[in-house]
Each structure stands twice: as structure tokens, then as C-alpha cells.
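Prompt: Have a read of the protein record below and flag anything odd:
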Amino acid sequence: MTDIKLILYKDNKAFDISALAEKITWKGRKGSSARSLNVTLIDTYKSGCKPAPIDVTEGNYIVFFYRKKELFRGIIMSQQQSESLKMPITAYDNGIYLANNKDTFVYENKTVHDIFIDVCGRFELKYSDVADTTYKIPELTKSKTTAWDVLQDAMSQDFRATGTRYFIHSEKGILRLVRRVDNPVQWVLETGNNIISYTYKKSIEDIKTRLKIYTDEDTVYAVKKNEALEKKIGIFQEIEKKDDDLSQAKLTQQINETLTEISTPEISLDVEAVGIPDIISGSCVFSSIKPLGIRRTFYVDEDTHTFTGKSYTMTLKLNSINE
């Protein structure tokens, strides 16, 4: 694998273990705090190479480059050794500290921006490029939970109030809070070009045709229907509590946006394609599936990039954007 480079850091020393790598899998998914790197290493002398001097209990770090571009930097969390003389290792970027640290969090009138900075400060995590969110969450209290849980809750509340999505990712050991539409570059995937195989799915199994809003006193505040859809498939109802902290205009907007989201059929596309390092969960791609007449933009919900020998492919789970 001449295009890849693996550097192991141990005891403040750097070891180039590229020649020991047989297979590399680099992946991430929506809802996960960290991206991971799985590497199968040769655990014996071969072609003049020494076994990898890895001991996860010593806090070993690994950096992965593809064509001189750094794709991953993280801590090795597990290793295996056996008579097969192979050593599978798994590493996670520093988003893993968000999932593996617990505390009690209490916030009043704080934005996602504020909460992200506070969480990073508590656990001494480096950060930069923090999106300037404006919505102030009236109250957010999470007892004895993970940092990742409170951040997901904060981003979810911001989305319900503003319709804006954010995601957190790590780059070169630094955490970033990014507004989803701030990533405008769209790669094109198309059959007959870079798509190897695909599976397209449409489903109404989780669809809702109406939304009923209750007050704290359990009286009905509002009912919003997708009448055209109900005529076709019948009634499927969701219920929610009224958010008393929103203005009437914001509440109406939230109800309309929520109904649009829950009454939209699930449209997903699983693709195996030629590898492109920039396509990871949280980004967007434009997919052209000529046999199905599909030409549209999808969010990347999950990505798995696999490097073996001279081969580099990726498998993606894509979900449609409501346009």
C-alpha cells in the first residue's frame, strides 16, 4: 500500500509501521462521537520489518495518512494477538473522550456554542472552528451522563427551534462544531463511473401523517395533518409536548417543519464506490443512478473506507435531503 502511511507514537517516539499493515478500515457514522481506525498488522518479522511495539495500556497514538494527507489521528484502544501472527488494532479519534466521560451538566440560556466550549474545557479537549450558534436553550440539565449525550441533546433542541443541523468532528486531534450546510463541496457518485454497486430503498414504515401537540396539562394544543398523504395511506399519528419557551411564530414554524420531516418517506441509498477520502458522515454527495432515474443530493449517514493492497473502496449509507 504505497499510498498509505501509518505512524505509531509511543514514549514520545515515532515508529513508521506502514509496511506492517495488511488492511485498513477507516469509518464513522451519524450519531457516533468518534471516527475509528481498524488496522490488521503483521505481528512477525517479514521483509525486514519488526513487530509493531504496541501496548494499549501505555496510551499509544496512531496517525494515518493517505497520499500525504492526514485522515485520522487517535488513541489505540484495543489490540489482539494470536498464533495467526496478525495483530488487529482499533483506534478512535479524540471524539471518544466525549463518549467516555460522564458528569452532571446544568445550563440556562446557553447556546450550543457555549455548551460545546464548556464541555471541551471540562475534559481538557482541544477545539477550534466553533460554529456561532445563536439560539439560547432555556434550560438543559443532564445528570450523570456523558458529554456526548448532553451535546446531542443541545444540538437536537437547537434544530427543533431553528431548523439548522450541526455536527461535531475531529481533525488533526482538534474537535470542531460545524454547521452542516457550511460543508458545501458535493462529490458526484454515478453509475458507469465510480459506483461499483448500489441498493436503493423507499419505506413508509416509520412515517406519520399527523402531529398532535399537547400542553403540560395534557390538553390538545394543536393538530397538524398531511391530508393528501392521509388520503393515500390512512392515519399515522405522532404526539409531542408544546414548547412554552418558543414564540407563537417559532412554535408554528417548528410544528410545520416537524410534520414535514415525519411525513416524508425514508429514502436511503447504500453505495459501494471508488474511495474518496473527503466523503465522510456529515457531508453531502450528489448521486446519479441512471438505471433508476435518480439524480439528487444525499446526506452521508455512515461511511466505511477500506484500504487493501492497491485497492481503495468505500461503502456509504446515504439518506435523502428534503428538497
User: Anything to note?
Assistant: The two ends are 41 Å apart (CA to CA). The chain has a mean pLDDT of 90. The chain has five helices and 21 strands.
